[in-house]
Design goal:
Structural class of chain A: alpha+beta
Number of strands of chain B: 5
CATH topology of the largest domain in chain A: Phosphatase 2c, domain 1
Order of helices and strands of chain B: EEHEHEHEH
Strand content of chain B: 25-35%
CATH topology of chain B: Transcription Regulator spoIIAA
Radius of gyration of chain B: 13 Å
CATH architecture of chain B: 2-Layer Sandwich
Distance between the termini of chain B: 28 Å
CATH class of the largest domain in chain A: Alpha Beta
CATH superfamily of chain B: STAS domain
Number of strands of chain A: 22
Mean pLDDT of chain A: 88
Number of helices of chain B: 4
Distance between the termini of chain A: 84 Å
Structural class of chain B: alpha/beta
Low-confidence stretches of chain B: none
Largest sheet of chain B: 5 strands, mixed
Oligomer: heterodimer
Shape of chain B: globular
Number of helices of chain A: 14
Helix content of chain B: 25-40%
Strand content of chain A: 15-25%
Number of domains of chain B: 1
Helix content of chain A: 40-55%
């Protein structure tokens, strides 16, 4: 899968989120479960230990009762030798826990003639047998079981031992003294003993099962193992020797706590089980101590198994999640790829491209609608554009034709009069738009006169161009009937003023030059005054005549002015497009710059002079868009005889 | 270009700021067109802020002048900058319009 695909990104994010969420939940669950297991295990250990202790006490307590009950019987010398045997045999028979019982008398206490007497009844297989313990070889007075309670004057539990006579059974003996009143004084009568087989204890303690390897054990008051699953330790090892063997000081601490009768839960590391908990508590009667061992490993085994199960389930769930997510996402965003394809098709101009099916996904439906809207709008827009473009093209083509017509209206072949050596003439008209309102014209009148005109219609573009066409036509036709410049202007004005509701007007300069004499008759109707160039003088503008442009008032008295040109004098005519040419900062070219350019280039040919001025204007505007028509005309009068050097 | 039309003593004071050329002469005409319709209207045209005027602009001035005259009103122009005055002089428009150096002389005349 492409790593940049949206579906991949979504899946990665979803999985990451599931992972974090699952991990957090699992951690909390794990800690909680562990805590619960620990608590329950602890409670269970305590409960197990205490119930075992209770069971042990149930067996031991009756054993303690027996000597107490016998003691008062023995305080009188009521029983015969035979009946004592029968009594003891009966006692052993009736108490399952009792393996044997003896009543050992103090010297001469049973009878004066008998030194020692210790009737003893014991189990031998299914039978109960009895005999006198006393023999010169077995002087019971020096035995621990006799001496210790006799000296301490209180009952005593012996350390466990293997009974040699009893078939190698592990035993313990409870010895309790009894007393007699002789001569009003209370003297020791002897010791009553009850032998208890520790088989019972072993059974009870071994019946405590904790998981697979956990167990319970019992140590005596000296720390000797009384019961332990490992039988080789019983009677052979103490908890202290074992602690030393496995080099575990904490176990020695536990041993000390146990023999001092404390109940406590401790953690320790054992060689065969690893980390374990040991809970120990005292058996009150015998001052022995019971311990239960809880192996950590097994304690948490259930949890571990559960964890493995959860882990496996998680993998399955994640796999299912991935597959389901991929499917859902691909189904939901699948149309996007199709939309991308469609967009390309549409961009290629196929606005009718069919849109992908999107089902009932709201966002996709939105996208679908947007696409449809875009298709419709594009179609509409393109249709409009086509229409506009064709309309525009039509207008442009018409304007091009109009421009051609307008250009044809003004003379544009130079030099215009090869057979008139008296005149050098050049003119140029550059419209700011396709068609414009500037005009110039020149034509000979008769054999020895040249009529010329320059004008500027107010405004620009098509309206101005129509007015210009009318004006230029009028100038030509009026010049046929009228002999003076003012008369021509007057006639043009009169005609233009009729029905001129839009108040269009033309500034117009008309001149008639006598080629023989150099006399120039002119009429200026509000036009920029032309410049008169003489090789010996500074350039000079024609005076202001205060006559208004034509087309404004039907009745206006236009007057003729007259000057005389010397041979090689030049007249430079222009429209305000020259002096008002703007640079990018809206600075105007101005009359001063025009005069300067003309002064620098006088005595050049009409064409060259015009071109130089044009270049100066071009340099000045420096690429800024031309806003008005620029028209220039230069007439050089060479005198009656003409000039063959310059034309 | 900015056109401000205010009330003067007996008519309107129209202030023109900036340039009037082919790009905005229509706007200029639209702004002042409503003044044409009042009988005997008196209009003072303050040109002190006018920096440039093209022939299209002159045409609107001309139209204004003619319409005001038809209504029997008077148009007075004052405060022209030298380069504007020059355009009016060259084109002969100075002889058509009533032009004054400033507002007070325009009012007195």
């Amino acid at each position: 899968m492409n790593r940049n695909r949206l579906s991949f990104k979504i899946i990665v994010r979803v999985l990451l989120f599931c992972f974090i969420l699952g991990g957090s939940v699992f951690t909390i669950y794990y800690l909680f479960a562990r805590e619960t297991i620990e608590r329950e295990s602890r409670e269970n250990a305590i409960h197990l230990a205490e119930s075992a202790v209770y069971k042990i006490e149930e067996i031991i307590s009756p054993a303690e009762m027996i000597p107490d009950n016998l003691a008062w019987i023995m305080e009188t010398n009521a029983l015969s030798q035979d009946s004592i045997y029968a009594f003891l045999e009966q006692l052993v028979r009736n108490n399952d826990a009792v393996f044997a019982s003896a009543i050992a008398f103090e010297p001469h206490m049973f009878s004066k003639e008998q030194y020692a007497f210790a009737p003893y009844a014991y189990r031998s297989g299914e039978e109960i047998r009895s005999h006198d313990l006393w023999s010169p070889a077995y002087n019971y007075f020096i035995m621990d079981w006799y001496q210790i309670p006799a000296l301490l004057k209180k009952p005593y539990w012996s350390e466990p031992y293997y009974d040699e006579g009893g078939g190698g059974v592990l035993m313990t003996t409870y010895s309790a003294p009894f007393y007699r009143n002789i001569n009003n004084s209370r003297v020791l009568g002897g010791i009553i003993t009850i032998d208890i087989s520790l088989e019972f204890l072993t059974e009870i303690v071994n019946s405590v099962k904790i998981f697979d390897t956990g167990y319970a054990f019992l140590i005596s008051g000296n720390g000797v193992y009384v019961t332990h699953p490992d039988a080789s330790r019983i009677m052979n090892q103490t908890i202290f020797t074992y602690a030393k063997e496995i080099d575990e000081p904490r176990l020695r601490e536990i041993g000390r706590d146990m023999i001092s009768g404390k109940s406590k839960l401790s953690k320790v590391t054992l060689k065969e089980l690893g980390d374990v908990w040991i809970y120990h508590t005292e058996i009150p009667s015998s001052k022995w101590s019971l311990g239960v061992v809880y192996p950590h490993r097994e304690m948490y085994a259930g949890l571990r198994n559960l964890n493995i199960m959860i882990f496996l389930l998680s993998i399955v769930a994640l796999t299912v999640l991935i597959i389901a997510t991929v499917r859902i996402i691909n189904k939901q965003i699948g149309p996007l790829t199709k939309f991308a394809h469609t967009a390309r098709n549409i961009a290629g101009g196929n606005f009718d491209t069919e849109l992908p099916a999107v089902g009932d996904n709201y966002e996709m439906m939105e996208l679908h609608d947007s696409f449809r809207f875009m298709q419709e709008e594009l179609s509409k827009y393109i249709a409009d554009l086509k229409e506009t473009t064709s309309a525009k093209e039509k207008i442009e083509s018409e304007l091009r034709i109009a421009r051609g017509i307008q250009t044809d209206m003004i003379p544009h072949i130079f030099p215009p009069f090869p057979n008139l050596p008296e005149i050098g003439l050049y003119a140029s008209l550059e419209s700011a738009m396709e068609v414009g309102g500037d005009l110039y014209d020149f034509f000979p009148i008769g054999d020895d006169h040249l009529c010329f005109a320059i004008g500027d219609v107010s405004g620009k573009g098509v309206p101005a161009s129509l007015f210009m066409a009318v004006t230029i036509t009028l100038i030509r036709s009026m010049s046929e009937k009228n002999r003076s410049a003012a008369q021509i202007v007057q006639s043009v004005n009169k005609t233009l003023t009729i029905n001129n509701e839009s108040n269009m007007f033309v500034t117009l300069f008309v001149g008639i030059l006598n080629l023989r004499t150099g006399e120039l008759q002119y009429c200026n109707a509000g036009h920029n005054p032309p410049v008169w160039l003489n090789k010996d003088k500074e350039p000079q503008m024609f005076g202001n005549t205060k006559a208004i442009p034509v087309g404004i008032f039907e009745v206006f008295d236009y007057r003729d002015e007259t000057v005389r040109l010397d041979p090689s004098d030049q007249i430079f005519l222009y429209t305000d497009g020259v002096t008002e040419a703007e640079d990018v900062n809206k600075n105007l070219f101005g009359e001063d710059a025009l005069i300067h350019a003309l002064a620098e280039n006088r005595e050049k040919s009409s064409k060259e002079l015009t071109d130089r001025v044009k270049q100066s204007v071009k340099d000045f505007v420096n690429g800024h868009m031309q806003s008005d028509d620029i028209t220039m005309m230069c007439i050089t009068y060479w005198g009656e005889n003409g000039n063959n050097e310059k034309k | 270009m900015k056109i401000t039309i205010g009330k003067a003593d007996e008519g309107y004071l129209v202030e023109i700021d900036g340039r009037i050329d082919t790009t905005n002469y229509n706007e200029f005409e639209g702004n002042i067109a409503h003044l044409y319709n009042e009988k005997g209207v008196m209009i003072y045209l303050d040109c002190s802020g006018l920096d440039y005027i093209s022939s299209s602009g002159l045409r609107i001035f001309l139209t204004l002048q003619k319409k005001v005259k038809v209504q029997g009103g008077i148009l007075k122009i004052f405060g022209m900058q030298p380069q504007i005055k020059e355009i009016f002089d060259i084109s002969g428009f100075s002889s058509i319009f009533a032009i004054f150096p400033d507002y007070s002389t325009a009012k007195e005349a």
